[in-house]
Write a structure and sequence with these properties.
Radius of gyration of chain A: 14 Å
Oligomer: heterotetramer
Strand content of chain A: under 5%
Number of helices of chain C: 8
Helix content of chain A: over 70%
Shape of chain A: flat
Distance between the termini of chain A: 40 Å
Number of domains of chain A: 1
Structural class of chain A: mainly alpha
Largest sheet of chain A: none
Distance between the termini of chain C: 44 Å
Strand content of chain C: under 5%
Order of helices and strands of chain C: HHHHHHHH
Shape of chain C: globular
Order of helices and strands of chain A: HHH
Number of strands of chain A: 0
Largest sheet of chain C: none
Chains: A mainly alpha (79), B mainly alpha (119), C mainly alpha (241), D mainly alpha (498)
Helix content of chain C: 55-70%
Chain lengths: 79, 119, 241, 498
């Protein structure tokens, strides 16, 4: 059981670091989405199904869509 | 049993988010760092409510309802985080609205250039 | 990977990082000493767990906390969303969809039936909110993502969901407050969860909680459709005075 | 009486939700609708205040659950006064807001009012955070309403600082919940005596930073000096008049409840006093050199917040002087700054420039009256509340023998007087005969001037009769805990009838 914990924690931390420190905006939005997926898994492991569903749908789903739409409105083609 | 548990991850995310906000100059990247910061705080709240070896606070069966106090995780932090995640999204929508409009008016979303342009 | 980023590495950047590092260290120390991980630290929650089901009728304790014990937070939460939809309405103006130029066959076919499937899932999540994990917020967002397909393919002449969405959003918000006020007038306290408790675990249980969550579900769905409509539109905003 | 308190929060919310429908009829009906709503909440808040002054504090219970289980509102006479004055200025700002704003503007104002009313009354920690978020989010949107280049920079800076601050405040809530297992302010206050020093220090710093940004405390108020001038004038009147004060109110309420056990009173008092002096001195000195009129007024607002912080710090050891000074300074600043921003803002919009020499060409007569009365009371000229507030503060500082501080504060007060009088004289000596957009503006300016004069007369009368204002103070810990509910009887897990 401990390994799954470790895998989720490392995955989330790594993707969040990419999201904050990567160069391109679209690549860091995608990294943020992956971090949200990792976060959803963490909430699942923490016995919080409601929060996992909310995190998956809102942070992984809608936030990423909003970011990409905003970048699209700014005319940025995935620099 | 695992030293690297969710407290460590949430504090790592909080630190990462704070650093991202201070170091980045591009407003969209600052918004991303803010989302990471908020995720860190949300994860911390839920992991404060977690109790090892207990199950989610859904009392689906009769006997679980009878003796649930010792078997179930704390529901209150989950309720708080449910609200906090949606607040975070509300803030993000307003922030991205500002970013788009800032880009349209200044041609860039670089916060540090904002000073001399608007000055 | 780090050097190319337009970032400020002057003194303030370094000081900020050191402060954040020190703060994180202090936070870790504090957490592990004061709030041990994985141990039962509940005080008020013991009451919620002990009497949650038979006093609110909802088997999902998180829902009973969100709607009944701490209902005011959720009302505040709904207000935050309403204000952010209105604020986005201030910044970005509606207009035609941005994607109609590239005629995309897959999207066109998918958008005929897929949204309705997604909305069905969303309605299920909202309606089961008080029995199994899920609820108004999660279900509402799923419904709005279902309608997203329709939004993306909106052509110039097609009118968006504009009027309907705003009307729904406002009505649901007002409905939520009205239900809360009924609790105040008839039962003496704002947001009182009245109505038949029913058999816990069945659909028609937990009195007014499913109705409240339905209001929230439709409100959240219409709010995000309004926000998404603004974000997917190519409307050039005018110079407001 | 508890029902009235809930209506002051529920009605503006309902008005905000229904604003879209009223907006279909046009912007003027929307303005009329929000003026009506804020008038009703002002009357209700007035009745609540009267009953509070006569009777004892009120505890409002939500969802039918008694305090430790459910969320509760707590109203003491000070909260009643704050609530009433917030609603008064909101009503006057709505009718005094001219004709240039859309229905969305008034919808956001109504939600801001609901958020502020909830923030002042709330007795639950996470509930304070949610209302705080509402107030912050609406303030970001209102500051950036004009979407000019200048308000973009103000809006973005305010957004980033505000978001970081609210995340840190949520972090403080997480730590407190982890440590105590409850979110009810009275129960946390009861349990906070046993917190170790390091934990208490970290939570104190987090709450101070989290709420300090919005309340304009010194190192964190960089956003304030761009946001107020760039915002539409009714918004800058509200920001300076009630939003930063309500954030300060909540900060002082939480500090009063969690951190003032016997050991820490001196330390907390010193820190707040230092922060207050820094906020006051830095804001006034920089304000002195401002050519932009609205920016100068924003610096004066930050200065007044510094004075209020000092008043609270003095009030910890000398409650009779400190808390009286806090109340008088708050009321004076609300009326004077609200009036000044409403008139100066409108005048500078009409004349198109905010520079000290050219902004006043379009001054109408009522603008001149407010310029004079507002300037005098803000500076602290004798008959007005500002005078009594500053005197009480100075005496308080002398009482806790901070003589050096008194010297600095008096010198900087003179500085503040100079640059405020420059603005008032510019308005008084303006030759042109300006015309206001709508009669509502003149009405609200006249009402504010009369309120200031009336308050001054009442203060003189009160001083002669020796009326004691000691009830208008933050309820001390013990009394707060007793009024909300019997903490010791609550063991947790014991079966309480729902």
């Amino acid at each position: 059981m401990g390994y799954i914990y470790l895998a989720v924690v490392l995955f989330t931390g790594f993707t969040a670091a990419i999201a904050v420190f990567s160069r391109g905006r679209v690549s860091s939005v995608v990294a943020l989405a992956l971090a949200s997926v990792g976060l959803t898994a963490s909430f699942y492991l923490l016995q919080a199904p409601d929060v996992a569903m909310a995190e998956a749908v809102i942070s992984a789903g809608l936030s990423t869509a909003l970011f990409l739409f905003a970048l699209r409105k700014m005319g940025i083609r995935g620099d | 049993m695992n030293a690297l548990d969710f407290y460590a991850l949430s504090v790592f995310l909080i630190g990462l988010g704070l650093m991202g906000v201070f170091l980045n100059r591009d407003f969209v990247k600052i918004l991303i760092s803010l989302s990471v910061l908020e995720s860190g705080v949300n994860l911390l709240i839920v992991s404060i409510g977690y109790v090892r070896g207990r199950i989610a606070p859904i009392l689906f069966s009769k006997e679980l309802q009878a003796s649930a106090v010792g078997k179930v995780v704390d529901p209150v932090p989950q309720a708080l985080v449910l609200t906090a995640i949606v607040i975070g999204l509300g803030l993000l929508a307003v922030g991205l609205g500002m970013a788009v409009w800032m880009h349209r008016r200044f041609g860039t979303t670089d916060v540090s250039e904002l000073k001399d342009l608007a000055g | 990977m780090l050097e190319g980023i337009n970032r400020k590495y002057d003194i303030s950047g370094i000081i900020a990082s050191l402060v954040v590092l020190a703060f994180s260290g202090l936070l870790i120390y504090l957490l592990y000493t004061q709030i041990p991980y994985g141990q039962d630290k509940m005080l008020v929650s013991k009451d919620y767990i002990k009497m949650g089901v038979n006093s609110t009728g909802a088997t999902n304790l998180v829902t009973s906390v969100v709607l009944s014990f701490r209902g005011l937070d959720t009302l505040g939460e709904v207000t935050v969303l309403f204000a952010s939809a209105m604020a986005v309405g201030l910044f970005l103006l509606p207009g035609a969809g941005m994607w109609q130029r590239e005629e995309n066959f897959v999207l066109r076919v998918a958008s005929r039936f897929l949204p309705y499937l997604i909305i069905l899932i969303g309605i299920y999540i909202v309606s089961q909110g008080h029995v199994s994990p899920g609820g108004g917020f999660q279900g509402g967002v799923v419904i709005s993502s279902g309608l997203l397909l329709k939004l993306i393919l909106k052509r110039e002449k097609e009118s968006g969901f504009g009027g309907l969405v705003h009307a729904l959003e406002s009505l649901m918000g007002a409905g939520f407050v009205a239900l809360a006020l009924v609790g105040l007038v008839k039962y003496g306290s704002f947001l009182y969860s009245f109505g038949p408790k029913g058999v816990p675990g069945t659909l028609l249980s937990a009195g007014v909680l499913p109705v409240l969550y339905a209001f929230i579900g439709v409100k959240v769905a219409s709010e995000f459709v309004a926000i998404l409509e603004r974000f997917t539109s190519s409307g050039e905003e005018d110079e407001r005075a | 009486m508890t029902k009235l308190a809930v209506y002051t929060f529920a009605l503006p919310l309902l008005a905000g939700f229904l604003m879209w429908f009223v907006g279909r009829l046009g912007n003027r009906p929307a303005k009329a609708f929000s003026a009506l709503t804020s008038l009703i909440t002002t009357v209700l808040a007035g009745k609540v205040l009267l009953s509070l002054l006569k009777g004892s504090s009120i505890v409002v219970v939500f969802g039918g659950w008694r305090p430790p289980l459910g969320i509760n509102f707590f109203l003491d006479p000070l909260a009643g006064l704050w609530l009433f004055s917030v609603n008064v200025l909101m009503f006057l700002a709505v009718i005094g807001s001219g004709t240039r704003y859309s229905w969305r503007f008034y919808g956001l104002l109504m939600i801001l009012l609901a958020g502020l009313n909830g923030l002042i009354m709330s007795g639950d920690l996470f509930n304070v955070f949610v209302f705080f978020e509402i107030v912050c989010l609406v303030s970001f949107a209102l500051v950036a309403y004009y979407r000019k280049r200048e308000s973009i920079e103000a809006g973005v800076k305010y957004f980033v600082l505000g978001s970081v601050a609210s995340s840190l405040f949520l972090l403080a809530i997480a730590l407190i919940y982890g440590k105590t297992g409850t979110l009810n302010l009275a129960q946390i206050s009861y349990l906070s005596n046993s917190w170790p020093a390091l934990f208490k220090l970290v939570v104190f710093v987090l709450i101070l930073v989290g709420l300090g940004v919005e309340s304009g405390v010194f190192p964190l108020n960089a956003w304030l000096f761009d946001a107020h001038p760039a915002a539409p004038f009714p918004v800058s009147a509200l920001l300076s008049g009630i939003v930063i004060e309500s954030a300060l109110y909540v900060l002082l309420r939480l500090v009063g409840l969690f951190f003032l056990d016997k050991g820490a009173v001196l330390l907390v008092g010193q820190t707040l006093l230092l922060l207050g002096v820094l906020t006051f001195v830095v804001a006034e000195i920089v304000g002195f050199y401002q050519r932009d009129v609205k920016r100068a007024l924003a610096y004066s607002s930050a200065g007044q917040i510094g004075l209020m912080l000092m008043a609270f710090a003095v009030g910890l050891s000398r409650p009779d002087l400190g808390s009286v000074a806090l109340v008088l300074l708050f009321l004076n600043h609300l009326l004077a700054k609200g009036g000044l921003f409403l008139s100066v803002g409108a005048v500078s919009d009409r004349s198109g420039s905010r520079d000290l020499d050219r902004f006043a060409e379009e001054c109408a007569f009522s603008d001149k009256v407010v310029g004079l009365v507002g300037g005098l009371s803000l500076v602290g000229a004798p008959p007005f509340l500002g005078f009594w507030g500053k005197v009480a503060l100075v005496f308080g500082l002398l009482a806790i023998n901070m003589y050096a501080l008194v010297g600095i504060v008096l010198a900087v007060m003179v500085l503040e007087a100079i640059y405020l009088m420059r603005i008032s004289s510019a308005m008084l000596t303006a030759k042109g005969e300006g015309r206001q957009d709508c009669p509502g503006q003149a009405l609200s300016l006249w009402v504010l001037s009369l309120l200031m004069l009336g308050a001054g007369v009442l203060a003189v009368y009160g001083v002669k009769k020796g009326v004691d204002l000691s009830r208008l103070r933050f309820t001390p810990k013990q009394e707060y805990i007793q009024t909300v509910y019997d903490v010791s009887a609550y063991k947790g897990g014991v079966d309480i009838d729902g």
